[in-house]
C-alpha cells in the first residue's frame, strides 16, 4: 500500500489528483479491507487528525464518505465507529452481494477487453504472492479489489458504488464472524472466473461467482475475530508532515 509522503495544510491542496480527504478515505478504506480495523473500532477525529497531519474538517469529510457507504457509523455527539454488523445484517449483506455480483458478472462478460483481462490476472497473481509470503492483510485487500475491478469493468457506476460498500462490509463481516483456519484459495477461484469471462460464458461465470460466495459464507460463525483498535498502530506507515 502506498505511503503518504506529504499532506499539505490547506484543504484545497492535492496529492497528485487526490484531495486530502481522498487520501485519508483511501487509507481507512484499505485498513478495513485488510482487516486492520476491527468492527466497532472508535475513529477518534483528533487522533486521526494527528496521524494524518490534517484538520478535523478533513477527517470528517472522509468519515462522512465512509458513513455514506455504511462501513462507518456516524453517531451524533459520540463520534464515528467502524460498522459492526449483526448476524442478521451480515446475512442481508451477503444476500445483497450475491445479487450485485450476478449482475456484475453478466456485464463483465459483455464488456471485458483483453487488456482488462490481463489486468485482472495480474491482480490475482499479486494476491497469490501476498498469501504465499504470509502477508494476509494485503492478500485480503487485493481479493476485495479484484471484485471492485470487476465492477469497474462492468461499466455501471451505480453497481460499482454499491459494490464498494458491500465488499468493505463483507471484509468486516469476515473479520467479525469467520471461524476455523485462515487458509485462502480465493486466487484459484479468481483465475477460474477470469477464464469464464474470457470465454464470455455468462452461465459459468455466474455459477463460479456464486460458488465463490458460498465458500465465504460457509466460513462464517458467531465467533469474533479480534483485531487491534489502536489507531496509531494501524496507521503506523503514514508519515506525519508535522
UniProtKB/TrEMBL annotation:
> Which Pfam families has this protein been placed in?
FCD, GntR
Tell me the superkingdom of the source: Bacteria
Q: What CDD domains does this protein's entry cite?
A: WHTH_GntR
Domain (HTH gntR-type) spans 18-85
InterPro entries in UniProt: GntR_C (IPR011711), TF_FadR/GntR_C (IPR008920), Tscrpt_reg_HTH_GntR (IPR000524), WH-like_DNA-bd_sf (IPR036388), WH_DNA-bd_sf (IPR036390)
Q: Which UniProt keywords apply?
A: DNA-binding, Transcription, Transcription regulation
For this UniProt entry, the molecular function terms from Gene Ontology, in alphabetical order, are: DNA binding; DNA-binding transcription factor activity
What SMART domains does its record include? FCD, HTH_GNTR
Q: What is this protein called?
A: DNA-binding transcriptional regulator, GntR family
